[in-house]
Design brief:
The protein is about 80% helix and about 0% strand. The protein has about 230 residues and is mainly alpha-helical.
Length: about 230
């Protein structure tokens, strides 16, 4: 397992696209936060929370998420999956190592997004003083990013196509969940739109739909990977 983790870590670290996509996500979040900080009629805490709303956070995460989606998608595109499986000698280990590194990358991404948001607020009026609330938002964004990345990784493994996985990850929050939200009337019950209630009130139940979706997709990916020819 350690060898598999090292393999994945080196692969991600040495790709130039990893740093470009991380920078793109951070830059977009900085822009969103800078615009939110412009609402001088609102409190600093409101402006901070508004930087992580359901309309922008899934979009911001798409850029770094492309890194983990490519962890499987590019393996199939360039036909390196067979070499990976033969080298690591265990398909569950292949999936587990990619999932662990994806979760670590998601956590780093979450911390980075909160930091650039605070920077944008400092540059335009000042950051909120409530450190406990900032800590809650940090935890919320990290958890949301980890679960979202695992969904993206699982979809790439299921479809064997990075483009299809990214299209799904774009369409579900922006189109499908908008329709579901109008029917369910409770936004926290819709997986990706749970971000708003998670950030605003840190309600633990907000994570349940997205956690269930991530578990379903990753388990399904593992089952399919174990049964089909690579």
């Amino acid at each position: 397992m350690l060898n598999a983790l090292r393999y994945e870590l080196v692969r991600i670290r040495t790709l130039r696209s990893t740093w470009i996509l991380l920078a793109a996500g951070a830059a977009l979040q900085f822009l969103v936060a800078y615009m939110a900080a412009g609402h001088s009629d609102q409190t600093r805490l409101w402006r901070f929370l508004a930087s992580f709303n359901t309309g922008t956070l899934p979009l911001v995460l798409l850029f770094p998420m492309a890194i983990v989606v490519g962890a499987f998608g590019h393996e199939y595109r360039y036909r390196t999956i067979t070499t990976t499986v033969l080298t690591l000698k265990s398909r569950p280990v292949v999936l587990a190592s990619k999932a662990v590194i994806s979760a670590v990358l998601a956590a780093v991404t979450g911390v980075l997004l909160v930091l650039v948001t605070l920077l944008a607020q400092v540059l335009r009026g000042g950051a909120p003083d409530d450190r406990a609330r900032i800590g809650q938002v940090l935890a919320a964004v990290v958890l949301y990013a980890v679960l979202s990345f695992l969904v993206g990784l699982g979809l790439a493994a299921l479809t064997r196509n990075a483009t299809v996985a990214m299209i799904v990850m774009l369409a579900v929050p922006s189109v499908v969940e908008t329709l579901l939200g109008s029917v369910l009337k409770k936004w926290w019950m819709v997986p990706f739109f749970s971000a708003e209630s998670l950030v605003d009130a840190f309600k633990w139940q907000s994570l349940l739909p997205l956690t269930a979706l991530a578990a379903l997709v990753v388990v399904g990916a593992g089952t399919v990977l174990a049964r089909r020819d690579v």
